[in-house]
Amino acid sequence: MATKNLIVDNKNFDISYEIVNPTCTKDIIFLHGWGSNKDIMKNVFAPYLKDFRHIYIDLPGFGKTANKYELTTNDYVKITDEFLKLLNSSKDVIAGHSYGGKVATLLNPRNLVLLSSAGILEEKPFDVKLKIALSKFFNKLGLNKITKSFRSKDVNTMSENMYATFKNVVNEDFSSHFSNFSNNALIFWGKEDTATSLESGKKISTLIKKSTFISYDADHYFFVKNVKDISERIENGIH
């Protein structure tokens, strides 16, 4: 593990990262999902794709990269782009899981690999809609302590700046960004995914013109059990 310091828009970050196959000339960059970290991606993909230099990154606020700011998805894109410049990365392939898929798309790589990407707005269950409505109501009354009681356990463990960041990014509609992506894309999905539905994956595949869509009998972390097939498809499907 290593770190690189960079300053983006007067914000200071020490980005934690790891490189596998450092002498290879083609890059594949792995971006994890919300609440995850680079180790999950590295533990799965490091034994494969041996002709690539693997770059695994902890995005700010996750893993071993600290964050003390309120950020947006565009901030994550700028930070990642500046970091990749420090590594002289060619951005041949960028693979993004869940939230990382949104960042990967905006980085505009030569080859985009989406692993159950976020970015398509889905209908929320009634109980979630009710919590949101009640939270907004109590916020207007200035009763923030009551509002906090409606947060999920995962959200309650976030710092205030990461919770603000979460609110900035959670309901973004990336349909136009997917439509505007004109390079090659490989889209992989889990058929039993409840975090980002299979229908979302199919929609993304219709929005990105030069895309191939493959699904597996598995959940949101489908790539863990299907890494060999996914890696082979990446090797054979990139431009």
UniProtKB/TrEMBL annotation:
Pfam families: Abhydrolase_6 (PF12697). One of its GO terms (molecular function) is hydrolase activity. Residues 28-145 form the AB hydrolase-1 domain. One of its GO terms (cellular component) is membrane. Keywords: Hydrolase. Gene3D superfamilies: alpha/beta hydrolase (3.40.50.1820). SUPFAM superfamilies: alpha/beta-Hydrolases. PANTHER family: AB HYDROLASE SUPERFAMILY PROTEIN YCLE (PTHR43798:SF31), MONOACYLGLYCEROL LIPASE (PTHR43798). This is Alpha/beta hydrolase family protein.
